[in-house]
Amino acid sequence: MALAELAARQWGVVSLAQVRALGISAGAVEHRLLTGRLHRIHRGVYAVGHAHLVPEARRLAAVLASGPGAVLSHRSAAAQWKLLPELPGPVEVTAPASRHGVAGIRLHRARSLDVRDTTRHETIPITTVPRTLLDLASTADAQDLEQAIAQAQRLRRCSDRALAGAIARANGHRGTRTLRETATQGAAFTRSRFERRFLALLRRHHLPAPKVNHPLAAPDHRRLEVDFHWPAHGLVVETDGWESHGTRHAFEQDRRRDAALTAAGYRVVRFTWWTDPHEAVRRLQPLLASGGA
Questions:
Q1: Alpha carbon of 219 to those of 90, 223, 226, 255, 268: distances in Å?
Q2: Theoretical Cys-Cys bridge with 214: which of 14, 205, 208, 229, CB 3.0 to 4.6 Å?
Q3: For the CA atoms of 177, 181, 182, 187, what is the dihedral angle to 10 degrees?
Q4: What pTM did the predictor assign?
Q5: Average pLDDT of the residues in 102-125
């Protein structure tokens, strides 16, 4: 019962040290492995009852397998904090520099990790959100980093002060400069890869920054959230990816939205994933000329 209760608190996974601390002998552990009551995930880490692990269980198992002082980090921590979607591949863990690698786990060795940069989230030892962003700044691409920063701000999980503190404690961390510059320029929350691609295009061509995923009032008092909005120019841009706009219902709904926005006085321009980037820039430049609408 004690083992089942422990597993229930830990996404169904336990370490050998935890099992032994409950008074279960090494022989009893082997018996449970043979009878299918325990399933080995990593050396010294087991799933209780079955081996069908949810993502949180895989992450905690990797941390337990990496030994004392190990914490979930980098992209895996970002997924646990719901800052970015998880990618296929090994779980990422940061552990003391003396720790040996474990098969199936991407181990980052740290000479020192300040206690203020670690915590527990949903029972998993993990880097704090500011430290997770710092680690991402050294490994993720620019669009993913910006998305993670924006999501952290949107979920109110990272203040400017906390971010500055993590940077100050970084001790020469490779992501310091990138994180500081990205956070300073202002991160915008986007809902799709297409939106991130479009925002990068605007910046590359030095076009005015829009409000992103911004709610607007329609004449019938509805609130319509648009992808990009330039208030000073009365301009709305919608980016249409096939996955969310490729049905007849979506087509008709988009036209109704355009009609409502036009009636409210906005100019609406739509781009698809297949729109040539140079063509998009040529269309936007006169609409975003200085002086507004």
A1: 50, 9, 15, 15, 15
A2: 229
A3: 150
A4: 0.69
A5: 91
